[in-house]
Design a protein that fits this description.
Elements lengths: L4 E10 L4 E11 L11 E5 L3 E5 L4 E10 L3
Antiparallel strand pairs: 1-2, 2-5, 3-4
Length: 70
């Protein structure tokens, strides 16, 4: 059985010269059905493909967008 990938900390991402997403956190969940029925393919092999695939996936995330000093 595959587990739901929940509240994964991704840190800070640069969006441009003075914009960032800070404290970025994501969860991958089923669109419908129970979590224990969630089926997905996860690849972390950088030489082939890095990502997650599913016919039944929703991605939920939180973070703070900052521009320059604000």
């Amino acid at each position: 059985m595959l587990r739901v990938l929940q509240d994964i900390e991704l840190g800070t991402f640069k969006l441009g010269s003075d914009a960032n997403i800070e404290n970025f956190q994501v969860s991958f969940e089923p669109i419908k059905g129970e979590r224990d029925e969630f089926d997905y393919k996860l690849s972390l092999d950088q030489s082939k493909y890095i990502g997650i695939e599913s016919d039944n996936i929703k991605i939920r995330g939180t973070g703070k967008i900052s521009h320059g000093e604000s």
